[in-house]
Structure formats: structure tokens, C-alpha cells
């Protein structure tokens, strides 16, 4: 497929408002929340400069110069804003495969609070070893895609609200596909991206060659033992001391030798929650109310202003597969893309309950998938791997299930070599079809 994009959306125009009061407000706001569209774009460029790809930018943006530019073995990549309607665009990274005859297309969709920059450790190898063109996008309303107003009609039923939010993402992806003139694709979705990619594959199976779900959120139903907490924000009451005896095992199941009871993973989590200190229960209840009222983690980050960079820094510091320079670049990128105008992030409280359980679980929906599907989880993933394994075993279409060693939920960052190896095998293997 020859991709010549004619409709490239320029970056949003700079605010040209004038006046003393406006300038004072802008100065104070810039000090309190030191971000802007320009700073966000710069943070993306800085992060992608570490991706070992020859990177160019369309529109008004400049080519990134780095030490890889003269090397023919390094993939060429373009970053562009692809229009999906008159007002909105989707940020896109595109790497054309050096084999001009290839018809395969890999499309990568990121997780919640992330962006296409989170795959900077994967682009070089995917560009060189996969027999595919590679596309990576920022979901509409996230990353460096445009930020339309996202409003939910609270008069509608919860199910109708979920359907509206899901359609927002699925249809924007379909408009992007049409604009890119992609006939069929290997669609990869991470976490929230996996949730939406599943729904896209259910609605547009004719556009999917293979579906790859990287630790998708929202598959299982809310466990009975956690419903009071997840649905109502009620922490379980503490057991009397004489009955409060549980093993310290963190495995999926463990045996209480005192009572001979088998305690499954969910019950063990509940038991730990019983012993949460009172002050943390108060914080937990406050967080529950904020989530259920439509607030978002990004809103909290914006509230903390310049100190929000400390929050993203602590989050990124846990990623074992990055050096200090990469962690700093990724943390800056995460802060700046998260601190932009609130938009489709508000869909999360509509689609997901606290603790990342779906209001309308995927479990009873994706069992109807009609395309070859692969599930990938990290060995130390916090997501419920057993839910993916159960679906993988139950699908009537070719299905695979993979565990990436030495990796958690962000396995493409924790163990990029292991993740790339599995993904490239899925893309290049024609026997799964």
C-alpha cells in the first residue's frame, strides 16, 4: 500500500489574544502548570529521538536530527496529524516497510494515560524485522491528537453512556483507517487500547487480519467478593482478631492452614483491604468518589500543577527496562501529554469502575470474535491473566496466549526484546490465519 497523505492537519494555532490581564493570567498559569502544546511536542521529539529511527515531521514541524540519520539500516519514520473530520486529527507515526511489495499493516494503539511515544523502545526492531508497515496512533482526545470536548449525557442509562463512549473511540479509529486507506491490519491494543481494539474487531472484522491484545483491560466481571468495594466504595469490615489469620502468599491461590480453607486471588485481595489503615481507607473512598463523579487521573495531575511532574516521575521510575535518561524523557512526555486540555480521558469513568473493572465487561462480548486473536501478558502483570487465558481457550477462531518474562503491565517497555520477538512472530506467521 502506497500511503501518500494529502490531508495533514497542522498543529493547533497559537493563542494570539492580547491584553494585560490575559498576559498576567497566562504567566501565572504557565508557572503553576508549566506545559503547552509546544512543550508537549518537544517532549515527544526528545523521546522519539531515542528510538533509533530516522524521524521526520509533517506540516509546520521540523525534521529531528540525530546520529542515526545517515544509517541505511535504521527505519524511516514520519509523524503527522491525520485529519478525521474538519476539526479533529489523530497523531500518527508511520514507518513504511522497506519491502515495497508488503501488504501487511501493523497498527499500534496505546493504553490509558499513554501515547505513541510509549513504544519508543519497539519501533526500530518492528520497522526492521516485521514484514509490515507500522503505524502507531494517539487515540482521539489523548496524547498529541486533537482534544475535542467530550460530554456524556447523564440522563441516559449507564449502558447507553458506555455505548456512546465506546463508539467515540471505535468510530474515530475507523475514520482514521479510511483516511489512511488501509484495507486490512494487524491491530495491537494495549490495556485500554486492547479494550477498544476488541470492540473495533467485533464491529469491523473485515478490516482485521489479526487482533493482538496486550494485557487488555475490562475482560472479567466484577468478582462477587469485591462488589461492595468496586460498586459502592465500601471497604470490607475487619475480621475479629481470632479469625484474622491468613497466609502471606501473593500467588493466585493459597491455603489457610488454620482453617483449611482455599482462598482465591480475589478473596485474598479483599482480606488485605480489610487491614488497610483508616487514613488510607479515607483516601480510597475519596478517590472512589472522584472517579465515579467523572474526574480523571490527568485532572488530578493538572490540579497538582508543576508538582505533577513528580507524580509521573515516580510512576515511570518503576519501569525496569529503561535507563535514567530514558526514564526522564518518558516522564516529561507523560506529564506534558497528560496535562493538556481534558478530553476523552473522561470516558474512563464511564467505561470502567474503580479498580479497572468494566461496567459492561468484555467477557461475554469478545467470545464472539471472528478474527485470529493473540493475548499477551507480562509475567508480573497486575491485570488478570486468567481472564485472557479463559477467553483464548474458548475462542472458535485461531488464538494464541503468550507470557513475556521479566515484565509487568508495560511489557513493551519492561522487556522490549521479549515483547518484540513475540509480536514479530505473530505478524510474520501466516499459519495462525
TrEMBL record:
Task: Give the GO cellular component terms, alphabetically.
Answer: mitochondrion
Record GO terms (molecular function): carboxylic ester hydrolase activity; lysophosphatidic acid acyltransferase activity
Q: Where is the composition biased (Basic and acidic residues)?
A: 224-246
The molecule here is called: AB hydrolase-1 domain-containing protein
Q: Which PANTHER family match?
A: PUMMELIG, ISOFORM A, RE40534P-RELATED
Say which family it is in. Answer: Belongs to the peptidase S33 family. ABHD4/ABHD5 subfamily.
Q: List GO BP terms, alphabetically.
A: lipid homeostasis; phosphatidic acid biosynthetic process
Q: Where is the signal peptide?
A: none
Query: What positions does the domain AB hydrolase-1 occupy?
Result: 106-416
Where are the stretches annotated Disordered? 223-259
Tree of life domain: Eukaryota
